[in-house]
Specification:
The complex is a heterotrimer of chains A (about 300), B (about 325) and C (about 375). Chain B is α+β, with helices and mostly antiparallel strands. Chain B is about 25% helix and about 35% strand. Classes of the chains: A mainly alpha (about 300), B alpha+beta (about 325), C alpha/beta (about 375).
Chain lengths: ~300, ~325, ~375
Amino acid sequence: MTAPAIIPPRGLADRLTTLFWRHPRLLLSLLIAPPLLWLGVVYLGSLAALLLQSFYSIDEFSGLIVHEFTLKTYGELLRPSNADVILRTLGMAIAVTIASAFIAFPIAYFAARYAKGRWKAAFYLGIMLPLWSSYLVKVYAWKLILAKEGILTWATEATHTSWLLNAALSLPGVGGNSLSTSYIGTFLTFTYVWLPFMILPMQASLERVPNSMLEAAADLGATARQTFRTVVLPLAMPGIVAGSIFTFSLTLGDYIIPQIIGTSASFIGMAVYQLQGTAGNIPLAAAFAVVPIVIMLIYLSLAKRAGAFDAL
Amino acid sequence: MTSAVEFQAVSRHFGATKAVDAVDLTIAEGAFFAMLGPSGSGKTTCLRLISGFEKPTSGQIRIFGEDVSAVPPHLRHVNTVFQDYALFPHMNVRDNVAYGLMVKGMARTPRYAKAEDMLALVHLDGYGDRKPAQLSGGQRQRVALARALVNEPRVLLLDEPLGALDLKLREAMQDELKSLQKRLGITFVFVTHDQSEALSMADSLAVFNNGRIAQIGTPTDIYAHPKTRFVADFVGSSNVLPPALTQSLGGPTKWSSLRPEALHPAPFGPITGTVTALRYLGAGHRVTVTTQGQDIAAHLPSGTATPQVGSQMTLTFDPAALHVMDEA
Amino acid sequence: MQKIKLMGTAALCLAVATSPVVAQVTAVGDSEGQVNIVAWAGYIERGESDPAFDWVTKFEAASGCKVNVKTANTSDEMVALMNEGGFDLVTASGDASLRLIAGKRVQPINIDLIPSWSTVDERLKNASWHTVDGVHYGVPYMWGPNVLMYNTEVFKEAPTSWNVVFEPMDLPDGKPNAGRVQAYDGPIHIADAAQYLMFHKPELGITSPYELNEDQYKAALDLLRVQRTIVGRYWHDAFIQMDDFKNEGVVASGSWPFQVGLLAADSPIASTIPQEGATGWADTTMMHVDSANPNCAYKWMEHSLASNLQSDLSVWFGANPAVLAACTDGRGMQTAEGCTANGLDNFDKIRFWTTPIANCSQGEGACVPYYRWVSDYIGVIGGR
């Protein structure tokens, strides 16, 4: 007796497997339909709702929302006090991103090129550990560090460098009564809190630069500085941009840190929070919320034009 | 005539591992020199010692008579074609080739002109605007070559330059590299684990084993007169015969080697055994005959009658073909 | 969206007044087994935060009503939860209570079924934030002033005016107040400025700090712009403010009795209500119109007025009980001195928090509505 060439299907599972084998797209669409639905409805849907709200306006007298399409609310954003909020947030986001990039690069570079085995584990632990503790705890801790009668003041007194601290605090615009009530304090805390989000993508992109690429540059006569400028930096750029997207957008959207540390002057997130509450000015809150999205889009297109994604 | 590269008792140890161990080596100027060996034999480390990416643990390296112990890679008149080509993915082909000139501060117009010359040299005229990702493996190889040659090195190092190419392309590139070297007249040092590549391309070669040079000489010399079992075995799939068998075949009580091509089927002969394997090679067959517990391979050219596996077979050879080695 | 529509309260109030009153409960029957309450954090304690403060466990045993508490953080959240339904009671503040009445989310209370109603502070019985046209929509729970907290080492005597936090000056220790005073980080603080102006600039004609016409409003903002120059950081979190008094060298600020009580324990801190008076808040326990557990709800409302509960609550929160006996009868932890410290005697000086709306006692659309308070206060803090 010869065995049949085809094993008969043993049940529903076999039949389904056969069906999927014959129509691979069916399986694919079944697998991605739920997440796509989630993305489409919940994610993009809420964004669309937000966008829609921003085209409504609030009636000056009754305080009721007028459900008519208008650009009046966006015009409100240009009022000096609102434009202040946007520029203040933007300036902070830029400063935090630049500082993070400068601090993160050497750390990421060391981790990607030199740290091995146990050192690498220590690196990841060191970077991730602050992320595991509550964000609020870190912010409150920084408040204590930066307070007028805090650790930093004490340290500068002990090392006779108070003049340095006082000089920083007397800077016009960014200074203040103490670090914790000045823009410098807000900046320091932001930079600390978002730094891991800059280091990790940077390190990942640096790790992808093969050693032979650096050797090739040196082999062709490039000094260390030239190698860095012409090879390492362009190849690390996608990671730097990815990291800066994090630090930039996280700073744009945060409303906790500037509430706890700084001059109490509003950032975009705080303004949204205050406007959507009892104030009921949902249109203006929505318009404010659209600002970071627009800024990010502009930022990404500029980065693309500058060739940040060429090495992808 | 000064030698292009000279190693004097050079060692490179990584902890307990002796990657390169007391190597003496002289590479003549204008030579096409091959470093052949299995992976981990120390040949690549030797190449990196020449380029400067490794520093010797002890010993002295001279390039054109100059001690280069204290000279970093970017100041050596030596360029490398890397195994993975290491082309810069964010630059186009022209900028890749012109890189060596760019870091020296050459203006854009002359450096692009020279880059185009180099691209023409490797038959890639008109590819300047492409990105490396848009090229085939063979084309990338040529770009890497052009990039390394643009600085007019006195020694060109090639690390497994053809390893990633398919057979056909590899053979074409072998010829091309050879003629390029003749035309430029500079010293080529290349590393390979492919013995046929080494034999066909090099003027002279060094066979590496365990961080040491097992034998150094011309390809014919090494192929015909391997000094050790390892060399005989690694360079061409030779039959390596133990001392007892060598003696029974009329030689001294020493290890010997016998090329498969030297063995022919005959009605009478010194070797008789059972056919245990038969392999078709296109241009003939390779037959394995087992005698006294030893496998002996013989090459049967096309047209020769092929035996059945399991049958008895007798082989004969020209006694001059039996190469006796120094190893007892 | 719902809550915004509800902001035109005045018109809706009228609608409530003319519509027939929802049927009241006429008798308290057997326990339904549970009662669901929306409350501020710390308002309904069952000894989990501090074993000494527990006014739920015994009630549950005696009434057979299990108490389920849903904590809300803002008045908006409370209104939203009540709109959703599924709750019996809510501890609503003055800015939420009228909205709930106007939206018909709460029902009138039959005070005859609450024996302890007679013990309620007379000043609260007919308060406008829960009694509309003589109909009671809840029982008072607690109230408190926004006091002036100060450092007793700097102020040997209590400051008599809010001017120490509104205008640049040298404090009694000879150093300027710039950077050493704080203000509340919420648009409601505009009302504090208006109250200050009510006293010092009567020519503005301010009658209520929550009903400001354009001129009065502008004067308040101008005062706040002056304040911005002396305030380093505004406070919005009670614990951060306490930290600022300890570590930031802050010596005076508007605050709540809650912070004063906690700080006074180990720091040279005291509080006062200056001559201008103060703003404050008053909360009411209100009953959902569709309450599924009316009997337990009535039992809780009665229980909430027990003098020992009121006494402990006022100590716990640093506020004033709705039942005056709680200060004196010794059934709880509160004492007459404690009540005085919490500002019990200053009821008349206090302007209770209500949501500013456009249609106010000055006329239709005469007042600046709350949403503008929000955006303008953002501007003021931003230095505009």
